[in-house]
Amino acid sequence: MYVIRLPDGTLRVPHSVLGDSGEGRDEGRIIAQAYVEIGPGDPDYDRLLPGSVTEEEMEDRRREWRDGDEELLRVFEEYKAGRSED
Questions:
Q1: 9 has a pLDDT exceeding 90
Q2: Cβ(3)–Cβ(26) below 8 Å
Q3: Which domain of life is it from (predicted)?
């Protein structure tokens, strides 16, 4: 997850939560990925700002990943086909 810089300068920062619903040992575990928004007055703002990306930059990265997946899938399928003959 990335720190996202909104048009008004607010930063949307990833925040992970791990909890337990109080049930049995392996039951009721809650894992959440969410964002919290912080502004220039927040103590972490100046530290996080340089590494932040805009929503448009994040969408460009997603598009590049998806485009790159096609080539990776093709190479894997060729590898898998070659291995099944062994």
A1: yes
A2: no
A3: Bacteria
